[in-house]
Amino acid sequence: MYSDIFKLISEFDKIVLARHVGVDPDAMASTMALKDSILLTFPEKKVYSVGSGSNRFNYFGKLDKVDDMMGALLIVLDTPDIRRIDGVTLGDFSKVVKIDHHPFVEKFGDVEHIDDTASSASELVLELINETDLLMDKNIASKLYLGIVSDTNRFMFNNSTGNTFRKVARMIDEYHLEIDKLYEPLYLRPMSEVRLEGYIGLHLSLTENGVGYIKLTKEILDEFGVDSAAPGNMINNFNYINEAIVWIFFTEDVKNNNIRVSARSRGPIINTTLANFNGGGHKYASGARIAKMENSEEVIKALDSLCFEYKKNNESGDMIDKD
Ligand code: AMP
Fold it and tell me: pLDDT tens across 263-277, in order?
């Protein structure tokens, strides 16, 4: 599969890279690293990375504006379905490639490489580079490292496999990555967000069966001086609360006139439940959009039932599966 993707990259002079709406570090890292690698390998090609950006990810590089995409090759990373692709129309392109680590939702590429056991889209780009004649340098390796670190929550999620560690270890050695220096742009944040995190800790509600939830209205966001993307960026920090096996943030998004939903789990599989609320994502890291804050009650109820079932089936409390 990687050789087919490399063949298409070699054939096209103009290549556009896209990813999902609501950009996050893995989406940004995988597209920018692949762009840099294609340009390093084929300096004469025109390669563009598109989609709406966020100032907080400027360190990954500048996004491009492209007026005429006709006839180009489109590579979509980190996105399982057409509705979540940011900034392009598939019909404008001669060929479409998909590279993704989400569970399969729909086919839209002429060539698709989907591996939902991979930790991140960045891990797949690393594999693509390792297995083809695409070139890598320290800058590209640094971006891929941050994409993998972010989507594995510093290798704490169970999407970090032995394979992930082996590939990352090799990359650290080969490109002399100074990992302590790399973390700063990824984890540095304004005091306003730290204070919001304190507020969430103080006000997180709990259901009977272990769903932690909070509803963040525009008024609350304004009080802390943060935007609607901020809570989603701190949701991983609420892992390991004894009383919450699933936790979920509902954040009012005035610009899009709906509610952003961000959920995490350390047990029950939540993406199938969130798919019933216009959402999706990974088994244990999932998101959705709902029309109104009132609808959050339905989501909480559905997740609470899920936790009830999960607890009933996992009563032993054993930490290690017995064969
Ligand atoms: P987030 O909580 O925004 O970090 O998203 C966690 C995961 O869920 C990511 O894989 C997202 O791509 C996915 N996701 C977030 N929002 C949605 C949505 N509205 N529909 C489908 N998947 C989503």
Answer: 999 999 999 999 999
Q: If you measure from the C-alpha of residue 270 to the centroid of ligand 1, how many angstroms do you get, rounded to a whole number?
A: 11
Which residue, chain included where needed, has tokens 């973390």? 183
| Residue 246 falls inside a structural domain | yes
Residue 304 CA to residue 16 CA, distance in Å, equals 42
Range of the domain at 287: 191-313
- State how beta strands 95-100 and 205-206 pair: unpaired
Task: Answer yes or no: do 28 and 145 share one domain.
Answer: yes
Phi, psi of 227 (to 5 degrees): -95, 175
- Indicate whether 109 and 229 sit together in one domain: no
Could you say which of 186, 214, 235 is where a domain stops?
186
pTM: 0.92
Identify any residues that bridge with 212 across adjacent strands, giving them in sequence order: 206, 247
For residue 231, report the distance from its CA to the centre of ligand 1, in Å: 13
Residues 118, 285: Cα–Cα separation, whole Å: 14
